[in-house]
Amino acid sequence: LALLALAAGPARADAPTGRHAFPTTYDAEGNRLPRPEWDLSVRGYGQLLFAWYDYDLDQTRAGGAREASRLVFDTTRFTMEIEGALPFGLEFEAEVELEHHGAGAAVELEYDEFGEYEQEVEAGGEVVLEELFLAKSFGPLRLRLGRFYLGVGLLSELYRPTEYLAAARPESEQIVIPGVWDELGVEATLRLESVLLTLQVVNGLDSTGFSSATWISGGHQQRFELVSASDLAVVLRADWTPTPGLTVGASAYYGGTTRNRPKADLLPDCDDPGDTEVAPCGVVSADVLLVDGHVTVDLPPFTARAVALWGHLANAGAVSDRNARLSNNLAVPRTPIADEAFFAWLELGVDLAPTLGMDPGHHLEPFVRLEYYDTMFDVRDGVFDNPRFARAVSSVGVGWAYGDLVYAKLDWTHREVGAFEDGTDLRAEDGVRLGVGFTY
After folding, report:
1. Domain residue spans in the chain?
2. How far apart are CA 396 and CA 411, in angstroms?
3. What CATH code would you report for 43-71+138-439?
4. Among candidates 48, 132, 11, 119, which has minimal Cα distance to 82?
5. C-alpha span between 366 and 373 (Å, rounded)
6. Per-residue pLDDT reduced to its tens digit, 329-346
7. Chain centroid offset of residue 381 CA
8. Which residues contact 259 (CB under 8 A, 6 or more apart)?
9. How far is CA 167 from CA 62, 171, 176, in A?
10. Would you say the pTM of this structure is higher than 0.85?
11. pLDDT tens for residues 64-117?
């Protein structure tokens, strides 16, 4: 409600003002001149998902998930983005997202932790401040300070439901790295004709949340009120658009994680530990390196997106050993972490509406999406390379949209668990999904 009130318009001219309020000014005829104020705009989107799945939730069994027949209905998310601009190039943006059915506590059954029940405040639904930043443009250079999306992968750019083809976001990118990844820091982008260069310096991840099933994704700092930035991360990204509708790019992420843990508990053996410093002999490095290549095509009637990402975690063994002894109260998985992870996804679609003579503004797009990901892509000696974390997902369906205002997507998904792993016989998993929603 407060955000809606803000977006409704400026306050009354006679409302109380702060100590730095603009003085009242008049023109030559004695008419009061308007004070400078933000030019506000509001946009956002809503998503609903209705799905049927033929498998049970417990994927840890010897043969994979058991056969089942489940219906799942979800109010996936509703977002509101408020943008403000001043005439001299200063901007702000705030994005609030309500996920699932609101905020509250819920209990999850964690099969990866021997069937333990865990209560998580955010699990029943979340109210999340995804973005909050100030930006200033200086010709081709733009600076941002605050919370914003990282330039890693494709979902940081193509997260709105009308910007990808299937009924839901690609699971591969959301599992291996934080989905639609946002952090706090500073960003500089530079436009050089057809090339866009991006540099970001942000807070790093927290390695206590790393795990077998989701690799570094659980390290996104959301469990505590304050974000630890003792270890920073740097993102470099380059995107080349040789012709409108075609973009090819690459990005790299490098950042520490050890000093962002809640306690200084990942330390080397020290001959003289003392008691006046937190880490007199330094810390065990647990740096994360990510490298991706990506391409997007929007050349009507054809649409295509593709991305591949490889990642490496330094001293994954030391992190795994220390995480295994963490308190249950921290609510983290405490499972072995792989040294490397990988994902790739590709989707292709063609708009048949012009061919079928549909009214202008309507779009009818058959599509296919292919994904592969492995959160234990490479492991050190002595660690079991669990084949069930290597998965290939195929999605086939059709989407309808009226402009970028409303949409409906129906698809069938097939997941191969243990994909391309020798000697595995894990049950495949199928589902049918209907996604509907709107943008405004």
Report:
1. 43-71+138-439
2. 5
3. 2.40.160.10
4. 132
5. 24
6. 888 999 999 999 999 999
7. 31
8. 228, 230, 231, 279, 283
9. 30, 11, 20
10. yes
11. 999 999 999 999 999 999 999 998 889 999 999 999 876 554 435 455 555 454
